[in-house]
């Protein structure tokens, strides 16, 4: 059996790391190519911020809009429960033109149905004002036809303009634009069928602002489609999902810093938050479940990272040079994640770090058993800090990523609460 010298072993590790990085680079060539010419994007680069066509403004404060793909009408309906609109596109246009909204916000109620192009939807559906989109009867595991399915693909012109990408290179189903804060619940967001031009990419959600989802699915209906079809892309926005099912081919959730017009508060500190509420929280991509450029704040609790070659990687190409890395917390870190994540089954490595000075906390999680000192139950019984040069099924940190660490192990023991101070008054003597 051939014995390798330490120098040869180190060269082999570097070759493996280079191959891993090269794989990601090739798989994301289409997205990287759209960003290659980006330098600094001024406010004049934005040509569209989701302004709809003319719609008669509402007079009373807007509270609820009802939409029914089967029984509604965009011509004779008025958005009430008895006379709903037919399309989500119409409801968003009415919201955008409203003179005033209720203090508690506006909710668009989607009845069960397939909200697609044949139904009259115009994709991507651009949401520039804050709203909650509430579907029906669609939690994780249901078929799209049994719930509220926002189903279609359109060119993502805002993304293309902001990163100076060529036309027909970016596509999406739903687009959240500044300064909107958009929530969805019990909604299936994706496309039943999709066909993209060469070197184009798709994400079911493009989040430039603030998005929160609950018991919803992103891109789940297109998991078997060709490459460059993904769950959510977060260019400078804030993305959170509780008990969501997120599928993708290249990535489940991809996030990176992007320069936006100076008047916008978004762009410099993107974030991803994943958690479990009532049902399972699962990210399942073919290549990377969560992909960032190293600038993104990531918090995940009670989430299963499934199916991918990598659960988390920071190998997304940067288009903005940021001095501080994002905080990555999979348990016990600065973002107060409680852990409970499942890192099992990655074909290459669960956490893959390529950049310098990244700190990843991953306490109280479950890992590939018997790998890198994890026991046969997939637990780390003591705290272990991996540093640059680590290579394994659970954690890989490139040797060039100097200063980066991944800390695994059990959750920190809670600090005991001190008992109340004893009374200064003596007890009474027995009679």
Task: Report what the structure shows.
10% of the residues lie in helices and 30% in strands. The longest helix is centred in the N-terminal third of the chain and has 22 residues, at 6-27. It has helices at 6-27, 29-35, 88-97, 157-162, and strands spanning 64-67, 107-110, 113-115, 125-127, 131-134, 148-151, 154-155, 170-176, 181-185, 187-190, 201-207, 210-214, 217-218, 229-235, 238-242, 245-248, 251-256, 271-275, 281-285, 288-292, 297-300, 303-306, 310-313, 328-331, 342-343, 349-353, 359-363, 384-387, 395-397, 405-409. It has 4 helices and 30 strands. 50% of the residues are buried. It has a single domain, classed as Pectate Lyase C-like (3 Solenoid), CATH 2.160.20.
Q: What is the rounded Rg? A: 24 Å
Strand content: 25-35%
Architecture (CATH level 2) name: 3 Solenoid
Overall SS class = mainly beta
Residue stretches low in confidence (pLDDT < 50, at least 5 long) are: 25-30, 32-53
**Integer count of domains:** 1
In the CATH hierarchy, what is the class? Answer: Mainly Beta
Mean pLDDT: 84
Task: Summarize the amount of helix as a percent range.
Answer: 10-25%
- Using the alpha-carbon principal axes, give the shape: globular
How many H/I helical runs? Answer: 4
Main sheet: strands, sense, barrel: 12 strands, mixed
Number of strands: 30
Gap from first CA to last CA: 88 Å
For the biggest β-sheet, the strand order reads: 1-2-5-9-12-15-18-21-24-27-30-28
Q: From the 3D structure, determine the CATH topology.
A: Pectate Lyase C-like
């Amino acid at each position: 059996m051939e014995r390798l010298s330490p120098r040869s072993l180190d060269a082999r590790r570097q070759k493996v790391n280079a191959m891993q990085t090269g794989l990601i680079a090739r798989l994301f060539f289409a997205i990287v190519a759209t960003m290659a010419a980006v330098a600094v994007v001024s406010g004049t680069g934005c040509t569209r911020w989701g302004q709809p066509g003319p719609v008669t403004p509402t007079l009373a404060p807007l509270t609820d809009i009802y939409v029914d793909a089967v029984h509604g009408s965009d011509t004779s309906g008025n958005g009430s429960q008895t006379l709903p609109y037919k399309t989500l596109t119409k409801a968003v246009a009415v919201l955008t033109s409203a003179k005033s909204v209720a203090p508690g916000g506006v909710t668009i109620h989607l009845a069960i149905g397939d909200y697609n192009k044949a139904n009259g939807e115009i994709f991507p559906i651009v949401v520039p004002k804050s709203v909650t989109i509430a579907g029906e009867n669609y939690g994780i595991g249901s078929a799209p036809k049994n719930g509220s399915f926002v189903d279609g693909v359109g060119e993502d012109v805002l993304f293309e303009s902001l990163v100076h990408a060529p036309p027909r290179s970016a596509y999406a189903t739903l687009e959240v634009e500044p300064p909107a804060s958009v929530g969805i619940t019990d909604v299936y967001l994706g496309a039943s069928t999709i066909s993209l031009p060469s070197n184009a990419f798709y994400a079911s959600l493009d989040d430039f602002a603030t998005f929160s989802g609950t018991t919803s699915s992103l891109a789940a209906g297109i998991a078997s489609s060709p490459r460059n079809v993904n769950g959510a892309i977060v260019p400078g926005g804030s993305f959170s999902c509780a008990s969501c099912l997120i599928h993708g081919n290249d990535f489940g959730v991809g996030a990176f810093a992007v320069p936006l017009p100076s008047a916008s508060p978004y762009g410099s500190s993107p974030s991803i938050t994943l958690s479990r509420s009532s049902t399972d929280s699962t990210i399942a991509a073919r290549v990377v479940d969560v992909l960032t450029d190293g600038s993104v704040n990531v918090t995940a609790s009670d989430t299963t990272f499934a199916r991918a070659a990598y659960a988390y990687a920071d190998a997304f190409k940067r288009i903005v040079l940021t001095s501080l890395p994002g905080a990555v917390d999979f348990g016990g870190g600065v973002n107060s994640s409680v852990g409970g994540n499942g890192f099992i089954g990655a074909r290459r490595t669960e956490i893959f770090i390529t950049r310098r000075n990244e700190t990843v906390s991953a306490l109280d999680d479950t890992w590939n058993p018997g790998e890198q000192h994890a026991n046969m139950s997939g637990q780390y019984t003591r705290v272990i800090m991996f540093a640059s040069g680590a290579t394994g099924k659970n954690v890989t940190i490139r040797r060039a990523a100097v200063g980066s660490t991944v800390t695994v192990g059990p959750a920190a023991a809670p600090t005991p609460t001190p008992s109340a101070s004893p009374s200064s008054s003596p007890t009474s003597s027995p009679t």
